Amino acid sequence: MAARRCGVDSLGAAVAMHPRYQQPPAPNPPAGLPLPTPSGTRRPRGQTADILPPMRAASPAALSAAFAAAMRAGDLEAAVALWHHDAAIVQSDGQLICGRDAITAALRALIDNGVELTIELAAVYDGGGTALGTGTLTMSASNGHGGFEHSSEALVIYRRDESGGWRIALDAPWGLPQL
Q: Are the C-beta atoms of 49 and 55 separated by less than 8 Å?
């Protein structure tokens, strides 16, 4: 059995370079122009959305919903805050993206390329301090090349943090690779 360790590969770089994920950059609105929030209200540029209360996510299901909402809102800071500090993403080839800096780059690439996420959590197996979630992740975007939509059976391991709230510890958005 081959053990996979965190490496330097970046999902963000892979997504950003793949032609089907390319999208012309959206023009930046002038400073001070309000941005949309998930509730439909507007907030001033630079002010973060209140996607998840700073205290904690009460359940893995609430965490998944908050993560999807943060990504839809383009709120990178809120999305990254939902990950454990030493979290990792398992890429489709089995390589790992490790730590918040690398995960931030990967999530930024998704947001910058207009990728929308839909998470349908099918089951959560809660072991107390650790939980396993299974479900379907759908990524889609419209771009100059006709766009794309991709669904996969995903696995997520959630872990409680020091405050007792849930954070994403390990995400296999394409399922586990067949090695």
A: no
Cα–Cα dist 65/48, whole Å: 17
Task: Report the predicted TM-score, pTM, of the whole model to 2 decimal places.
Answer: 0.70
Q: Compute the distance between CA of residue 75 and CA of residue 91 in angstroms, rounded to an integer.
A: 23
Does residue 95 surpass a pLDDT of 90? yes
| Cα distance between residue 113 and residue 143, in whole Å | 8
DSSP E strands in 69-147: the ranges are 83-90, 96-98, 116-126, 130-141
Phi, psi of 15 (to 5 degrees): -65, -45
Taking the CA atoms of residue 13, residue 16, residue 19 and residue 20 in that order, the dihedral angle to the nearest 10 degrees is 120
Q: Is the pLDDT of residue 113 over 60?
A: yes
Handedness of CA 130, 12, 151, 72 (dihedral sign): positive
Closest CA to 107 of 130, 77, 86: 77
Q: Would you call 112 helix, strand, or coil by DSSP?
A: helix
Phi/psi at 86 (nearest 5 deg)?
-110, 30
Phi (first) and psi of residue 27, to 5 degrees = -65, 140
Mean pLDDT of 26-43: 39
| Average of per-residue pLDDT across 9-17 | 40
Question: Encoding tokens for residue 43?
Answer: 């907030």
Q: Residue 79: which of 38, 23, 26, 124 has the closest Cα?
A: 38
Q: Which two tokens stand for residue 163?
A: 């405050």
- The Cα–Cα gap between 114 and 141 comes to 6
